[in-house]
Structure formats: structure tokens, C-alpha cells
TrEMBL record:
This is Uncharacterized protein. SUPFAM superfamilies: WD40 repeat-like. InterPro entries: SWT21/TCAB1_mRNA_Telomere, WD40/YVTN_repeat-like_dom_sf, WD40_repeat_dom_sf, WD40_rpt. The lineage of its organism: Eukaryota, Viridiplantae, Streptophyta, Embryophyta, Tracheophyta. Transmembrane segments: none annotated.
């Protein structure tokens, strides 16, 4: 009998013709025009420098035929989509990488990690140094805290364990504004693809005994919910 192995992350490629699934140190590629069990498998340890852990996140560049994969080994790797040839390996996240996301023009890559208070910005044309870091409060929670880039590609928003949503200008990484979105950890944020709307998810799994952070936290308590927010649009002359 075939051994059933669950994918740990999934993403369609830019054209929607293939589905990429992340596993432990490997990627499987399924052609959506041929449903079934057939797939191509690529080991990410080719060359000895690829991710050595679970592939937790996959993101495709909208412009240049590349994909980024994040792993729990605290590394992000960039590959050519056509043949899965390794291009770059990025180090710098303090925890296991939980999200990778390309900018709308495909020139920059944003990565976030578990228990890491900074989202890192990388210029994929020159990956020697980190371009800038964006702060968010998530250094004592095991939750994945998600971020998103708005459709115009000018701003990034992220949640945090303090219940805040922070919005940054991506041109230079400056903080623009923030607001209290929940009385609990905001673990998810997503912009609407064309309307001035966004949604947040909040909540935290709690046990009978509070930890030190919860005792010191000013958050009111459980708020397991999904909220929709409307942003005002300024008119440009």
C-alpha cells in the first residue's frame, strides 16, 4: 500500500497550472491538468546547502520565475521554478521560518519566523545583507503570525501577540500606523485583492495555568474571532 504523507505547506505557481507541496526536505509538484497521484519530487538538499527541515511556507515571484521556500531550520531558499535549481540560501531568522512572501514587483522577499519579532526584507538581486527589519510582537508565542502586502504593493501589515496590527511603508521600511485589532493575539492578516478591506484572525490556545507572559500582558483575554476592517481611500489629484 502507498504510504500517505500529508503536505505541510502548499501553493499554486503564478500561472495556476501546478501545485507545489512542501514536505520534510522535499518539494512535490502536481500538475493540475492531470489529477491523481502522479507528481515530481525534488530534494532540497541538492548541493548540501538547502533547507534541512520541514518546508513550512512557499511563495512564488510574480515576475521572474522563482519561488522561495521557508523551513523550520531557520533558512529560506530561492529556486528556479522550471528545474528547481537552487539560487540563494538566506540566513538570519531567529526561529523557524513560518512565512515567505514576494513583493508585487518580485524584487524583494519578506520572511518571518516563529518567536522572532522581526520580518526581514531581502533584495533578491543582492542577497548579501538584509535591507531592513519590520518589528512585530511575537517573541514569546509559538503561533504563526501572518503578514500580507496590499494589492498596490506599497504597504505591509502584520499582526502580533499584543493584539496590534502594524502597517509599514515598504519603500524604506518605515512604520506608518497601527491599531488595536483584538484583545488577544492577532495571528492572521490578509488584504482584500481589490477592495479597501482587510481581515484579521485572533485567538490563543490557553491552558489551566497562565505563563509569565500572560500574567504580565495587558490583553483582556479570549477573543477567538475573525474581523473585517475597512480602510479609507485618499483621493489623489
Amino acid at each position: 500500500m502507498d504510504e500517505i504523507t500529508a503536505a505541510l505547506s502548499i501553493s499554486f505557481n503564478s500561472t495556476g497550472s501546478k501545485l507545489f507541496a512542501g514536505y520534510n526536505k522535499a518539494i512535490r509538484v502536481f500538475d493540475v491538468h492531470r489529477p491523481g497521484r502522479d507528481f515530481e519530487q525534488y530534494s532540497l538538499l541538492k548541493g548540501g546547502e538547502g533547507p534541512t527541515g520541514i518546508i513550512s511556507s512557499i511563495s512564488f515571484s510574480p515576475q521572474n520565475g522563482m519561488l522561495a521556500v521557508g523551513s523550520y531550520s531557520q533558512t529560506t531558499a530561492v529556486y528556479a521554478e522550471g528545474n528547481m535549481e537552487p539560487l540563494y540560501v538566506l540566513h538570519g531568522q531567529l526561529g523557524g521560518v513560518t512565512q515567505v512572501l514576494f513583493s508585487k514587483d518580485g524584487n524583494y522577499l519578506y520572511t518571518g519566523g516563529r518567536k522572532d519579532p522581526y520580518i526581514l526584507c531581502w533584495d533578491i538581486r543582492n542577497t548579501v545583507d538584509i535591507v531592513y527589519k519590520l518589528y512585530r510582537s511575537c517573541d514569546t508565542t509559538n503561533q504563526r503570525v501572518q503578514f500580507d502586502i496590499e494589492p498596490c504593493g506599497k504597504h505591509l501589515a502584520t499582526g502580533g501577540q499584543d493584539g496590534m496590527v502594524h502597517i509599514y511603508d515598504l519603500q524604506g521600511g518605515q512604520w506608518v500606523t497601527g491599531f488595536q485589532a483584538a484583545a488577544d493575539t492577532v495571528n492572521g492578516f490578509s488584504f482584500h485583492p481589490y477592495l479597501p478591506l482587510a481581515t484579521t484572525s485572533s485567538g490563543h490556545r490557553r491552558f489551566g495555568m497562565q505563563d509569565e507572559f500572560e500574567e504580565e500582558s495587558s490583553l483582556a483575554g479570549d477573543e477567538n474571532c475573525c474581523s473585517v476592517w475597512k480602510f479609507s481611500c485618499s483621493q489623489e489629484s
